[in-house]
Amino acid sequence: MTRKQLEKTASKSSKAGSVFSGTREIIAPKIKPPRGCRFNQRLKMEGRTLLGRLPEDSIPAVFFDPQYRGVLDRLQLGNEGRHRERRRAALKAMTDPDIRQFILAIDRVLIPSGHLFLWLDKFHLCNGFRDWIEDSGLDVVDLINWNKGKIGLGYRSRRTTEYCLVLQKAPRKAKGVWINHSIPDTWPEKIASHRGHPHKKPVNLQAALIEAVTQEGDLVVDPAAGDFTVLEAARQTNREFLGCDLNG
User: CA-to-CA distance for 50 and 66, rounded, in angstroms?
Assistant: First the structure.
């Protein structure tokens, strides 16, 4: 089904009163930049510090790409950092307790029915991420497969896909919250350049997700921004951005 057909189907279903809706019913509060921060900038700071300066129940959408090492440690490459993947090996890894603290802080700042877009690889999708969201008010509501068009690691099948796990803060609802119904659950997008950050994410997919759950002028947050692709997506969609990375 084409994008136009999907949009036409969504429009008809919305009129029939189904889950599809083109009207957003929730409104995010307008907030000022927190102390020591500016919107739409590449801030260099610790992400949990940034999240701690935000008001409770204030943000409609957060993206989080944790710097985990689960699959790399399991593969035991041995020569990582010497002969291959030097940029990735130089990044400071997050422990599972670190990631849980981030997610609890994100849960605190999300508005009711707000969304967290959590990036995962196959290893964590299959071996478990539930400990990360334990004790939070977030539930899994969807999964987007990003086909990078590039072959990666793997002792058996070679990885071409990363996963964007969609979590929502209670109350869980789609109608009146998620209004872009043309996003396929497998999204092909090659990144424009492999220079810079080794974990660059797809700008167009993130822009589509932003449009799905926010309004123009809303604030989108990324507390571990890496190459700041969410900043670029926010600019494309006329949203405000607040994000940081330890590497700036």
Answer: 15
149-to-64, 158, 168, 187 alpha-carbon distances in Å: 22, 12, 28, 10
Burial of 171 per CB tally in 10 Å (0-12, 13-18, 19+) = exposed
Find out whether 191 and 175 touch, Cβ atoms under 8 Å: no
Strand-strand pairing, 110-120 and 161-169: antiparallel
Name the 3-class secondary structure at 209: helix
φ, ψ of residue 69 in degrees (nearest 5): -130, 15
**Tens digit of pLDDT at every position of the chain (248 positions):** 444 544 454 445 444 456 677 788 999 999 999 999 999 999 999 999 999 999 999 999 999 999 875 444 444 444 444 444 554 444 567 899 999 999 999 999 999 999 999 999 888 888 889 999 999 999 999 999 999 988 877 778 878 899 999 999 999 999 999 999 999 999 999 987 656 556 789 999 999 999 999 999 999 999 999 999 999 999 999 999 999 998 86
Tokens in use for 146? 């990003």
What is the Cα–Cα distance from 88 to 82, expressed in whole angstroms?
Answer: 11
- Residue for token pair 């500016």: 38
